[in-house]
Amino acid sequence: MSPAIHLAGAAVERSGQRVVQDVDLRVAHGSWFGLIGANGSGKTSLLRALAGRLPFAAGSCLVDGQDLASDRAGRALRFGFCPPAHTLPDSVRVRDVLELVGGSYDDVRPRLGRLSLALALAPLLDRWIGDCSAGMRQRVAIACAFAGGHPRVILDEPFNWLDPVAIFDVREVLRSMVDDGLTLITALHDLGTLAAACDAGLVLANGEVALALDEHALHTAAQDPQAFERQTIDLLRS
User: Which of helix, strand or coil describes residue 222?
Assistant: First the structure.
């Protein structure tokens, strides 16, 4: 079966400077793909380009076999995307934000499913975004990525600002959604999540692929997470 997403020689520029160069990756249907890298390694730029928020400067971007490298709008329509939590508008309620993305909340609710409970979303629905803490905003931003019911979702460091219980619950639900057919791509800082939850991944350094991790590599990493963490940190230091 052809991959859900296939990048070949992908490059991204920001302010005239190339920040991602020659990235190749394949994401299988119904899998969780993780990106790891230091701050400034190009993770966010790559994900924003994949989601249609930035152009690709070079390379191909196949989504279900169709090359959308030059079609930002086409890419944006095919992915649910988690907006940066701090960009959510203060002057609207949580329910309004979700309805802007997914239509009536009666339609949004079943798309979220168990994720709504993991995000403790119900008590927030009538709260103004401006009255939400950083952690609350992050929960809303994650929900936005799923409100449209897309079969492919991109999350950029989704566990930032969440408390330990929420991190555990959200990670468990995301894994179950992937097992049910969701194709998920996340940027992560947590090597433990990469090893324990993801099916494949990449380590980025200075905008380039430093290490590709397939299912076997991550299975091995899960057996000895401390060794995996040490090896990956050594790679990132170098």
Answer: helix
Q: Compute the distance between CA of residue 172 and CA of residue 169 in angstroms, rounded to an integer.
A: 5
Q: How far apart are CA 182 and CA 176, in angstroms?
A: 9
| Residue corresponding to tokens 């905008």 | 207
- Tokens found for residue 85: 């939590």
* Rounded-to-integer distance, Cα 208 and Cα 206, Å: 6
* pLDDT value of position 36: 95
Q: Look at residues 210, 192, 113, 152 and name the one whose alpha carbon lies nearest to residue 31.
A: 152
Low-confidence ranges of the chain (pLDDT < 70): none
Q: Is residue 4 helix, strand or coil?
A: coil
Query: Which residue carries 């994401």 as its tokens?
Result: 27
- Model confidence, pTM: 0.96
Q: Measured in Å, how far apart are the chain's first and last C-alpha atoms?
A: 36
Which strand (E) or helix (H) includes residue 200? strand 200-205
Residue 52 corresponds to which tokens in the numbers above? 């249609």
For residues 209 and 23, the answer to whether their CB atoms sit within 8 Å is yes
CA distances from 233 to 21, 157, 219, 220, 237 (A): 21, 18, 18, 17, 6
Whether 168 and 197 have beta carbons less than 8 Å apart is answered as: no
**Residue-level pLDDT at 238:** 76
In order of start, what are the domains of the chain with their CATH numbers?
1-28+41-79+151-157+185-238 (3.40.50.300)
For residue 159, how many other CB atoms are within 10 A of its CB?
A: 21
